[in-house]
């Protein structure tokens, strides 16, 4: 079902400061930036490697406000790992399969994600406390 880890999302207060930290510490490069109003985030993707069906990345996330998923996470838990995203060939199909196993879906259908991807989230309480994202690359080229 999963082809690779697409990205690990990190919640942070100050995106620019954390981009600089990851660039100088790990020699990573930002390959995309986006404000995603629907998800309530400003985000940056730092490229790690290329893999089956697309690349793998660190995603740095700054909330657009306190009343957003990442804003509430920061208030409760502080900065840290927010979610793990898996690359799948077909996110609609993966949602059907996983939903059929009784896992609560936070998205019934795919939404717009970073770099033109289609994304959907699974409830962390049903996946060992891990907020899980499914990612379908736009054309297997990411
Ligand atoms: C909240 N909880 C988490 C969590 N966020 N557990 C693990 N990992 C997280 N990231 C726990 C929280 O501690 C509570 O447990 C419980 O879930 C309910 O949380 P809440 O404080 O009521 O917070 P809400 O209202 O934000 O609800 C949490 C969920 C929400 C996960 C349902 O954040 C959500 O729908 N997230 C999906 C969308 C998202 O995260 N978008 C931002 C990334 P206790 O304390 O009651 O035990 S956007 C992105 O990745 C993009 C665009 C991309 O990749 O392209
Ligand atoms: Co993500």
Automatic annotation (TrEMBL):
<dbReference type="InterPro" id="IPR029068">
    <property type="entry name" value="Glyas_Bleomycin-R_OHBP_Dase"/>
</dbReference>
<feature type="domain" description="VOC">
    <location>
        <begin position="4"/>
        <end position="137"/>
    </location>
</feature>
<dbReference type="InterPro" id="IPR017515">
    <property type="entry name" value="MeMalonyl-CoA_epimerase"/>
</dbReference>
<dbReference type="Pfam" id="PF13669">
    <property type="entry name" value="Glyoxalase_4"/>
</dbReference>
<keyword id="KW-0479">Metal-binding</keyword>
<dbReference type="GO" id="GO:0004493">
    <property type="term" value="F:methylmalonyl-CoA epimerase activity"/>
</dbReference>
<dbReference type="GO" id="GO:0046872">
    <property type="term" value="F:metal ion binding"/>
</dbReference>
<dbReference type="GO" id="GO:0046491">
    <property type="term" value="P:L-methylmalonyl-CoA metabolic process"/>
</dbReference>
<comment type="similarity">
    <text>Belongs to the methylmalonyl-CoA epimerase family.</text>
</comment>
<dbReference type="InterPro" id="IPR051785">
    <property type="entry name" value="MMCE/EMCE_epimerase"/>
</dbReference>
<dbReference type="InterPro" id="IPR037523">
    <property type="entry name" value="VOC_core"/>
</dbReference>
<protein>
    <submittedName>
        <fullName>Methylmalonyl-CoA epimerase</fullName>
    </submittedName>
</protein>
